[in-house]
Write a structure and sequence with these properties.
Strand order of the largest sheet: 1-8-3-6
CATH superfamily of one domain: Jelly Rolls
Largest sheet: 4 strands, antiparallel
Helix content: 40-55%
Structural class: alpha+beta
Shape: globular
Number of helices: 8
Order of helices and strands: HHEEEEEEHEEHHHHH
């Protein structure tokens, strides 16, 4: 299996190519390895998030409980979108409005908030990394909001497949449907249509 540090280096260099390897190694040295079982919660609604995860293997789902309904907000996936935290709760130290759950067995590396913020303050490259990650987060959030208003369900599903390759085989379809803002039956029809398209 590929080394977790190599995975972290590869991802960080996609965001900040000039990041020195030594700074990534120093940051990685502050992390602790942890495993999550499928269905285990990383964060509950109403608690304050004090950790940042790097998902080396596995997949986490962000969701909200709205009027008794479980609504998927986002995913953190190994190699694609590997950092995982409740951003507002983590940065502002306010109770989280979301839940974060392991959708499959996961191997992660976990940092304490104080260590993460210290690196942001003391290392220019890590500050640039944090800025770039926030920009990416805002872009994804804004794009999803626009897609929900402008795009058809088929277009949103096509975007999902592009953003999260192979995730459709790793999570229940009703989680994907709630992420897209459609009924599971609608997603089933779309998937059937896609499977028949050359």
């Amino acid at each position: 299996m590929k080394n977790a540090l190599d995975d972290l280096l590869a991802f960080v260099h996609k965001i900040v190519p000039a990041m020195p390897k030594e700074e990534v190694e120093a940051f990685f040295s502050k992390a602790k390895k942890k495993e999550f079982e499928k269905g285990e919660l990383f964060l509950r609604e109403g608690t304050i998030c004090k950790n940042l995860l790097f998902v080396h293997r596995g997949l986490f789902r962000y969701f909200l409980l709205c009027e008794g309904h479980d609504v998927t907000k986002d995913f953190s996936v190994d190699s694609q979108n590997p950092f995982c935290t409740a951003y507002s709760s983590f940065m502002l130290q306010v109770p989280s409005e979301i839940w974060i759950e392991a959708s499959e067995p996961c191997e992660v590396f976990i940092w304490e908030r104080e260590d993460v913020l210290a690196f942001f303050e003391e290392h220019l490259h890590w500050l640039r990394f944090a800025k770039k990650m926030v920009e990416r987060l805002f872009y994804r959030k804004e794009r999803k909001e626009i897609d929900l208003l402008k795009c058809s369900a088929e277009e949103r599903y096509r975007r999902f497949l592009n953003d999260f390759p192979r995730v459709s085989q790793r999570v229940p379809q009703y989680h994907i449907a709630s992420y897209l803002g459609i009924a599971p039956e609608s997603l089933s029809r779309i998937r059937s249509k896609f499977s028949k398209t050359p």
